[in-house]
Input
Amino acid sequence: MAVDEELRGPGLQRSRFALVAVLAATFVVIGSLTRLVLVGLQARGYGFPLGRLPAVLGVGLVYDLLVTLWLCAPVMLLTIILPARAFRGPPARVGRGALLVVGSYVALFIAVVETGFFAEFNGRFGVIVVDALASPNELGSDIWDTYPTGRIIVGVALAVATVLWATRGLWARCEGTATSVRRRAWVLLPYAGLLAVLSVLVDPGLMGVSEDRAVNQIAGNGYYTLWMAYRARSASFERVYATMPDSAVDVRLDELLRDPAVDGAPIVPGSVERHIVAGGAARRHNVVVILEESLGSRFVGGLHPDGPRATPNLDALIAGGTLFTRAFSTGSRTVRAIEAVCASVPPLPGLPIIRRPASVGMATLPAILRARGYATEFLYSGRASFDGMDTFLRGNGVERIVDQSDLPSKVFQTAWGVADEVLFDRALSEMDSLSQTGRPFFALLLTVSNHPPYSYPAGRIAADPAQHRQENAVRYADWALGRFIAQARTRPYFDRTLFVVLGDHGPHVYGPAEIPMPGYEVPILLYAPAILPSGRRIQTVTSSMDVAPTILGVLNESYTSRFFGQDALRAPEANGRALMTENNELALLRGGRMAVLGPRRMAAVYSLDQATGQQHRRAILDATDLRLIQDAISYYAGADRMYRTGRLAYPIMAGGQPGSILSSVARQP
Output
């Protein structure tokens, strides 16, 4: 009788499901408003095609609805299963109120965060966020230092409180009435049905409403893109991307990686193993690789004289070194640069190999050099545990690691580490000590000053550090680099040392391109005036994964290679290529065309206008396009399979003791 009376109430406003409806409406409204804000940001900065606005809003509403149904699913289930007495009891009423307040606050806060993320990265949440969440301390400190985080927290709280107070007459009715089990089931069925249909039909391809990558990102939903990135982080290549038979991949890799200049050594079937035979005695030069944070080519006057010309010291080094003028990073994060430089592997989809537990005992540059008697070190301005760098490097040939904990504490530093000059001073001291041991040395240096919040010590350059401008941070980083090389030049070991300077990746770049190439374009400079000719400029398309074989080529080392890179000093210009990843897309650049592989087995080819940087998707694929797609599949599918099956590692001797891999490497030619 009580149930029947309550069912004759005034409808949804007194319904048990009112809270679900209010939360769902909150999520959808915030999602739509966020999308409109992003449209405004894009229009103000880079232009927005108004003709695409209806499609963006319509597709966006579909994504918002799917995400909302999933977010509200737990609340919906509780609403279904709770009996009337428990549903109307004090604990449930308090819980509903708290859920409404917390849910509204979190939804609005994430919307504000996503707006800031879009302003910096020109895209929705994705791989960058998934990777960053693995290091919450650095991420939190960086956000707090870079943005007015405290004011945002308070501002969102005030906005939520104001809206809830103004609508208190509505949400107070979310206490609902008693509802029969049958009626609850009739509400659940369409909810579950719609959720199932959308989950099956909606995929990332739905975002493709235009040829403008940023516009497509606006049409998406940050929760959805983040979930897709998380799912793809450990998925094997063949589960997500277009594939070819393993035998076809192996044949094509043999053609792509074989180097006739080293006796045409064949690749061992089913692997990329090949024997590199040098033409003479090895040169036991020291090697110092300097990974400069976010040093994109556009800052370098020697590459872009029409740009800001923020690197006068690097430009002076370019005049005395060998510069690769069309060089690209493999990713947009530092860990991608480390794995490319050390292990010479393509950027595998999902987690970088540095953060994978199986990435120990791989064939790497420091492992090969250590086996030849080199002392090997890694020096980092921040914490080496960040992103698992210390574990990866210690397990792959690096004997000694110097990080922020070993550097002076009372010096200029940000959330990411100490200023570049402090790192370089310590590196010089380490190099002095190593040179006295009689062993040649390999040192990998990683800087952090050119990173948000773009802070640096005052008085080093003319620009005011309080401006927090990236161009100024680049100028400071260049000053510190020039100071380091000038000091190293006074050392007796300078003429026996090869310095390699490169950007770990470029700055974040905006615009319509599917793969924003300027964000991957970096300088790669070999500087050794007593070893290499000065002023040489090489036009061959080069990748950061070519660094290791190129260094070993300069050293004239014979070795067993499992590298995907090539000696860029010796490679014909026609063999130039670069591989890179952007979110979940994988790309192969060769000549004026780029193949892009995406989730759900998407494959496309773009024509590149080198003068403007614009990309145009080719509607009709010719034989060259199809070959490029096959080559992209071969690189990525082959690398992924060989990594997962252990074929990128040297055999570990019986007992599997740490360092036993080095004994195996030492036996190679």
Remarks:
- Residues 1-13, 652-669 have pLDDT under 50 and may be disordered.
